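From: lab user (bench 3)
To: helpdesk
Subject: output format question, protein + guanosine-5'-monophosphate

Hello, I'm new to running complex predictions and I'm not sure whether the block I got back is the full result or only part of it. Here's what I submitted:
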Amino acid sequence: MDSQYNPNNIFAKILRGEMPCIKVYEDDDTIAFMDIMPQADGHTLVVPKEAAVNLFDLSEQGAEAAIRATQRVARAVRAAFSPDGISIGQFNGAAAGQTVPHVHFHIVPRYNDHALRGHAREMQDPDLLKGHAERIIAALREQAA
Ligand code: 5GP
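Helpdesk reply: Thanks, we reran it on our side. This is the complete output you should expect:
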């Protein structure tokens, strides 16, 4: 499993503001944004700001911050989409399905009657993603109130 961090990976560029993202949440240690090729409506990624390829490279502080942010954003996704379930996923290494070499956590709403779309397969319409993000941001605001 490669631990050599490539600062030109797409999430590093998003973290540096060099590439856009549809952001729903940010704190000192993490950022969360809509997955551009969602497996289900509301599929959100939580990305630690630390330069780490995978879970094994992340500091304990980074891991704590990431799971706190994942729980907070997942609560908002649950409130916004009312799914039957939510999968939280995190892949380490290409053999495990990791396609972006910067550690991140998937929040994927699940429904009894819909199959998931393919992993990192099909680009979603940005306007639709913005609408989904607004629902999550509104739920985060509610949570904070
Ligand atoms: P992995 O396969 O590494 O666990 O997940 C990477 C995820 O990032 C995939 O679900 C893929 O759809 C998503 N993704 C890839 N490139 C981009 C991008 O440029 N922007 C956003 N928002 N998501 C991306």
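A quick orientation on your result: Helices lie at 10-15, 60-81, 126-144. Let us know if anything else is unclear.
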